[in-house]
C-alpha cells in the first residue's frame, strides 16, 4: 500500500453505527492505492507490479491488503498516484450522486451542503462541467473561496442568515451533512429532488412524507457500494470520473496526509469538520 483513504464511513464503523466486516482485532479502512506484489493463480485481470486503487475492500488501514481482483482498478496513465488515491471513493461517490441519483439537466439549479468537503468539491465541479448552476453552504471564508474558485455561482456561510432568500429555488439539493435535512427540503422547488447521502453533521431528523407529497418533493438515497456490482461497472464508472480530471475540469485541494501510525489523529481531524478535501494515511 502507498496510501489508504480515510472516509466518514470509517468513523461510522468505528462508532459501530454502520455495516462492518467482522474481524478481531478490527481493522478499519476500505479505500487505498498500491502496487500488486502477489496474486492468486486464477487472477487474470491484473499483473504483478501494476499500480491499482480500490474503494471497496476491507481492512485497508494496513501495509499489505488482500484485494479481490474484481475490486482492483488500474490507475490510469498520466494521472498522479496521490491524486488518484485522493479521489477514488469521494470521486466515484460524486459521480454516482450526479449521474445516477441527481441526473440534472443543463441550467438546473443545484445546492450542495458541505460544498468544500471531499465529495462536495468533486460533485460541485462535475455538476458545473455538466452545465448545472451550483450553489452551496460551508463553514469558513477559506472554504467558501475554494468553492467559488471551483466554479460555484454563490456560496453561503453557515453562520449567516442565507436560507430565507433561497427557499423553493433548487431543482436538486445534495445533502451529506444529515442534520440539515429540513433546510434541504425547504430549499427545493416543488417537484424537486433531495439527494441524501450521509450524515457528517449527525443523524437527520424524521421526515413528514405528507408534507413532501403536498409539494411533490422526492428524496433519493444511495450507497456507492450498491452501484459497484462487478469489475466492469467499477472500470466504466472510474473512466467516466477520470474524464473530468483528464479534461482539466476538476481541481481539488491538496490532501492532508498522516502517517498510518497516526490514524487516531487523522480520525480526530476528520471529525472536527475543519478539513477541506481528502485525508490520506501514508504507509
Ligand atoms: N452514500 C455514499 O455512498 C457515500 C460515499 C462516500 C461519502 N459519503 C458521505 O458523504 C459525506 C461527505 O463525505 P466526505 O468524504 O466528503 O467528508 P468531508 O470531506 O469531511 O466533508 C464533509 C463536510 O461536511 C460538513 N460538515 C457540516 N457539519 C459537520 C460536522 N458537524 N462535522 C463534520 N463535517 C461537517 C463540512 O463542511 P463545511 O465545513 O463546509 O460545512 C465537511 O467538509 C459524508 O456524510 C459521508 O458519509 C457517502
From TrEMBL:
Upper taxonomic lineage: Bacteria, Bacillati, Bacillota, Bacilli, Lactobacillales
Any one annotated GO CC term: cytosol
SUPFAM superfamilies reported in the protein's UniProt record: GroES-like, NAD(P)-binding Rossmann-fold domains
Domain of life: Bacteria
Pfam families from the UniProt entry: ADH_N (PF08240), ADH_zinc_N (PF00107)
GO MF annotations in UniProt: mRNA 3'-UTR AU-rich region binding; NADPH binding; quinone reductase (NADPH) activity
Protein name, UniProt field: NADPH quinone reductase
Keywords, ordered alphabetically: NADP, Oxidoreductase
Domain Enoyl reductase (ER) stretches: 1-281
The organism of origin for this protein: Lentilactobacillus diolivorans DSM 14421
